Amino acid sequence: MGHWGRRSLSWLGELAVAVTIVGLVGASSAMAGDPQSTGEGATRQVEGAVLLETEQIEEYDPWEPYNEKIFTFNHKVFDRYVLKPAATAWDYLPDPVQESLGKAFDNIATPRRVVNNLLQAKFKSAGTELARFGINTTVGVVGFFDVAKKMGLEKSDADTGQTLGIWGVGPGPYLILPFLPPLTARDAFGFAADAAMDPLNYLIPFAALAGRGTGDVVNTRSQNLELFESVEESTVDLYSAVRNFYLQGRQRAIAK
Questions:
Q1: In the 8-state DSSP scheme, what is residue 200?
Q2: What tens digit of pLDDT does each residue of 135-190 get?
Q3: Is this model's pTM higher than 0.90 or not?
């Protein structure tokens, strides 16, 4: 796996449409408190979280019986029989190709980051995102190459659920939906808003958009095959672990 493929992806950073990865992927992504975390350090961070080496947070899960059933479906049916086989086949693509695809998907998500950085009064970060988009879309060939990063312009992730949390909106109940990563009631509204900020929603037919979203998900899953295998093998109560470090990751994202 390439360097990019080993990192723990920031929550919703690459998942801007409603065809997303299962809870394990979303939650492990949330544990990357720093969106720039890469390499072995990020891997150890995720693995440590799965082993419940986490701070104590309030876990409001009144819909747990329902959530557990959907989580089991997502993990034991959708991921095992659909997503993982597709990701395994996708993993035969050379690392540079996977990395470039990931960067292109990330570039498409720029409007969400710009808008939410502005709403969070992070004006410097919003300006950096605009500069990154301009450079990577042109010199970086529509985002396949992260030229802006080489120029010192780092990505600063932000999403609508995070913005609502900063504004004082409580997370509400923990929520698991079919085919989607973990959410809270607040993040579910944020997820819909983020999807509405995906420019491709308004430019291409739904079938093509779903295909792009699915390719994003499979690409992410293929780059983390070994990591997720390790997570599954080292965790006794996967549902509770995912819930804990997803909620912890969201709390950190709002507090930073």
A1: G
A2: 999 999 989 999 999 999 999 889 999 999 999 999 999 999 988 889 999 999 99
A3: no
**Structural domain of residue 137, as residue ranges?**
3-255
Question: Which tokens is 110 given?
Answer: 């720029």
Provide the 10 A C-beta neighbour count for residue 76: 12
Between CA 30 and CA 82 the distance in angstroms is 23
- Helix 238-255 with 23-30: angle, nearest 10 deg: 40
Q: Could you tell me which of 222, 171, 202, 255 has the C-alpha nearest to residue 1? A: 222
Number of independent structural domains in the chain: 1
Are 42 and 7 in contact by the 8 Å Cβ rule? The answer is yes
Position 10, amino acid: S
How far is 235 from 47, CA to CA, in rounded Å?
9
Asked whether the beta carbons of 156 and 114 are under 8 A apart, the reply is no
SS3 20: coil
Angle at 84 between CA 249 and CA 228, to 5 degrees: 40
pLDDT bucket at 227, cuts 50 / 70 / 90: low
- pLDDT tens column, 41-55: 444 444 444 444 445
**Does the pLDDT value for residue 7 go beyond 70?**
no
